[in-house]
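Researcher: Structure for this, please.
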Amino acid sequence: MATNLELAHATASADLAPRLTVAEEVAKFVRTKPLGAIGAAIILGMLGLALFAGLLAPYDPYNGDYGQQFARPSAEHWFGTDEFGRDVLSRIMYGARIALFVGFVASFTGCTIGGLLGVISAYWGGKVDLLLERLMDIMLAFPQLILALAIASILGPAVQNVVIAISIPVIPRVARVVRSAALSVKENVYVEAVQALGASRPRVILQHILPNVAAPYIIMLTAQLGAAILAEAALSYLGLGAAEPTPSWGLMLSGSAPSYAEKAPWIALFPGIAISLGVFGFNLFGDSLRDALDPKLRGR
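Model: Predicted structure, token format:
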């Protein structure tokens, strides 16, 4: 077991070590976390498709050609066409926009609200902590997808309603993780020192607690991104997400898989692969980022 002197020496050595540049940090991450680098490459590919879909898509994703219904994958239509003669590849490219928009906005909203509630609960304590924790317990009693389904069915099918329905179940899960980290930070000497000097509660939270719980917040944010994309696809598949003719991966599965599974399997196959790749990429990157940011796992 390390002595206080050894720990102090290790801390001083780390402080004196040269800081790595952004490029060196990226190179180190790629070298030490190859699976995370693969996940990051998949995410960057999705971002590229979403941003440049208007330039890359060979056809209009909304307009169909009824003379090309159920066209098999070919040089003209790489992923074939659907029941309306719309190019499947073009709709998948534009569908990346919906998936990433819902994933990022829902995850950021849910994680940010949950993180703030976790910090407030840990710092205030007492009745505030008790009330917030019981509220989190009530929300955690419902499975994440079931709660999202209930909220989406109440709000109605729309992309903005899907964002709300996905973000709310994320709040209690992030609040619990951030609360535990904030409770540890709250007991540090420097927090007690700034409180003794008369710093206000908002200032202590914003300047001294929130920066020190950023790592678990970022880890939870990346972990929820893949789940949000999968939840958006599930809600759209059930008719509670994007509506026709919006190019959504889940909606493409909903309209094609049950009716044309044998006649035109490519209509469901390629959107399913897109969903799987997106979730896989975010999960790989999130796991590697957790290992990189968690001090307990950093040396592994």
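Researcher: Any notable elements?
Model: Residues 28-53+86-240+264-293 form a domain with the MetI-like fold fold (CATH 1.10.3720.10). Residues 88-124 form the longest helix (37 residues).
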